[in-house]
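Input structure tokens:
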């Protein structure tokens, strides 16, 4: 296969930069569009990629970045449920209008396929576990609403514009190297690793028995690259996860064992918009994308702890 000209929006972020590393490694020609709001230039250090600093909310900027591109991996977004509860307007502008700009630019430039990074949050408190893609969507948080709206635009474009292809990936809780523990809205795994390593207490919202389908980033990257090629994937949404749930307490204890340090937990009330349990049915991704998670939770936590402790 020849070199693919790929645009990765949000390519300086956590998952985006892991994707860019994998694409470059297999010989793809890669361009990144990022405004560095939550992403970081250091995540792309030493890589031969074209970096366009730009704003997803500007059609002109997105269009310029899309020129000559064959595949768009659209990961640029404002993540975090609490952020969207705090400021739904900005989450909507970036996640929904930004996605519309990406889709329009891709349509106008004749891009072969757009792969969109959606989220488990579109399901809300799912009545059936494990949750398959046919489960009715019912997002609780504004973040989940933005992801669902963006998903629907992707699917709509794949239906109304001739030869336009889009694939939606619903990532579950992703963790791994280059996930920042520093932001006010940082995810649990990097926060736990940084705090436990520093001998500080960790904060758990709820009783810690809530479960998540924690997914190591290399698995997500593999699924994302497969989604750009797989036949039969156009116009569909796929769960991307490990396919097995673990409690937040279990993850915290496992990190303690890996680091060889005690875990001091502080419990706070659950946060608005948070769900109790999350567990993905990944049969569709297995069948259509040929996806199989390669790195399990324990191995992934070990690799993540190693990377984060080396950096903080
Ligand atoms: N991390 C997870 O567990 C998870 C789960 C489900 C879905 N997702 C989705 O995966 C994608 C990547 O998430 P991540 O965890 O790597 O987050 P991240 O915050 O590390 O990456 C997002 C990137 O988008 C960039 N960005 C944000 N706003 C922008 C704007 N207005 N213009 C241009 N660039 C902008 C940021 O600078 C950053 O580099 C997001 O779409 C997110 O919603 C992540």
């Amino acid at each position: 296969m020849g070199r693919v000209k790929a645009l990765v929006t949000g390519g300086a972020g956590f998952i985006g930069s892991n994707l860019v590393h994998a694409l470059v490694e297999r010989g793809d020609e890669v361009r990144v569009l990022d405004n560095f709001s939550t992403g970081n230039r250091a995540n792309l250090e030493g890589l031969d990629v074209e970096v366009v600093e730009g704003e997803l909310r500007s059609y002109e900027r997105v269009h310029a970045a899309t020129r000559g591109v064959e595949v768009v991996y659209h990961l640029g977004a404002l993540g975090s449920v609490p952020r969207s509860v705090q400021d739904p307007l900005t989450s909507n502008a970036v996640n929904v209008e930004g996605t519309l700009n990406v889709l329009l630019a891709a349509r106008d430039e004749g891009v072969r396929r757009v792969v969109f990074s959606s989220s488990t949050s579109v399901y809300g408190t799912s009545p059936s576990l494990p949750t398959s893609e046919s489960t009715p969507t019912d997002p609780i948080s504004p973040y989940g609403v933005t992801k669902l709206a963006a998903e629907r635009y992707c699917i709509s474009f794949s239906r109304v514009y001739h030869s336009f292809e889009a694939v939606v990936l619903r990532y579950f809780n992703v963790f791994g190297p280059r996930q920042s523990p520093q932001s006010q809205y940082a995810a649990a795994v990097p926060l736990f690793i940084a705090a436990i390593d520093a001998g500080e207490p960790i904060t758990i919202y709820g009783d810690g028995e809530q479960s998540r389908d924690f997914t190591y980033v290399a698995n997500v990257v593999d699924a994302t690259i497969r989604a750009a090629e797989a036949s039969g994937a156009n116009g569909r949404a796929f769960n991307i996860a490990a396919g097995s749930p673990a409690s937040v307490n279990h993850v915290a204890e496992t990190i303690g064992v890996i680091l060889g340090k005690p875990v001091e937990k502080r419990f706070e009330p659950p946060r608005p918009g948070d769900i109790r349990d999350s567990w993905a049915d990944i049969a569709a991704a297995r069948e259509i994308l040929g996806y199989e998670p390669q790195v399990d939770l324990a191995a992934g936590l070990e690799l993540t702890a190693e990377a984060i402790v080396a950096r903080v």
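The first strand starts at residue 5 and ends at 9. Residues 88-108 form the longest helix (21 residues).
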